[in-house]
Design a protein that fits this description.
Blueprint lengths: L8 H14 L8 E11 L19 E13 L2 E2 L4 E7 L15 E7 L4 H14 L10 E4 L2 E5 L2 E5 L3 E8 L1 E2 L3 E2 L1 E2 L12 E11 L6 E3 L3 E10 H17 L4
Parallel strand pairs: 5-6
Antiparallel strand pairs: 1-2, 1-15, 2-3, 2-4, 4-5, 7-8, 8-9, 9-13, 10-11, 12-13, 13-14, 13-15
């Protein structure tokens, strides 16, 4: 399901910033963050979207959360904050090929952020978490809590009750990583993959409870300038992908 730095949302955000400059409006401030990405979805490992394949079930649905260790949006610090998204593709369509027409895409912003920090988190979410990927979308301001117990990580708030998982070793004991797929991430080019323990979600008209499917975890440093370059290149790759 992963779309971390993978969709045209970044390109849309870049276009809006440039239009704002031309018309004299205030452009969004540059941002830079270091942190961790965690994600789980209904597809089997490894994530098929990144290899141009269809979801392994009728739809691909799940969530991704970014936990910022250190970060800035202009002069505003974003240390210790988090953002996340839950979404689902249409039946028989991958996330990439159905971008703009997802069944839903709901976004979750750390409620402890100040108004200035929320502005920065929303700017990052526009680029990294696919705002605009679905005609059905809402933004929620919620407490986002991550707990780490050994290899198990859990993300909890009142909508995403549980999102648990850990990268693990498979096959001949080698850690499965998404490193060379066509849409690989600019921020975390090596993303260990494994299986989630459980995903429970009740929002956006959904009531999910599943486990044993795809899970990803990556540590990254990325800024808005790097992201602009990545999304521009990715847009070209996506446009060149054969239609299925």
């Amino acid at each position: 399901m992963t779309q971390w730095k993978a969709t045209l949302a970044g390109c849309v955000a870049v276009s809006r910033r440039r239009r704002g400059r031309r018309h004299g409006r205030r452009a969004e401030d540059p941002w830079k963050i270091t942190g961790q990405l965690e994600e789980a979805c209904t597809c089997s490992s490894a994530c098929p979207c990144w290899f141009g394949s269809k979801p392994t079930k009728m739809t691909c649905g799940g969530g991704e959360f970014i936990f910022i260790e250190t970060g800035t949006y202009g002069n505003v610090k974003l240390d210790g904050l988090a953002i996340g998204a839950m979404s689902q593709s249409p039946e028989g369509k991958s996330m990439m090929e159905s971008y703009g027409n997802w069944n839903f895409a709901y976004h979750y912003i750390d409620e402890k952020a100040t108004p200035e920090q929320r502005e920065g988190l929303l700017a990052i979410a526009k680029a990294a978490l696919q705002m605009g990927a679905s005609p059905k979308g809402e933004i929620r301001y919620v407490p986002i809590v991550r707990k780490i117990d050994g290899k198990e990580h859990s993300h909890l708030h009142r909508k995403v009750r549980e999102l648990l998982g850990a990268p693990h070793r498979r096959g001949l004991g080698r850690l499965l990583e998404d490193r060379q797929s066509p849409g690989r991430r600019s921020a975390a080019p090596r993303v260990p993959q494994g299986e989630n323990t459980k995903v429970a979600y009740k929002d956006a008209g959904q009531d999910w409870s599943f486990g044993g499917s795809n899970y990803m975890f990556g540590t990254f440093t990325i800024d808005s300038e790097q992201y602009e370059k990545f999304t521009a290149g990715l847009a070209q790759k996506m446009a060149a992908m054969p239609k299925k």
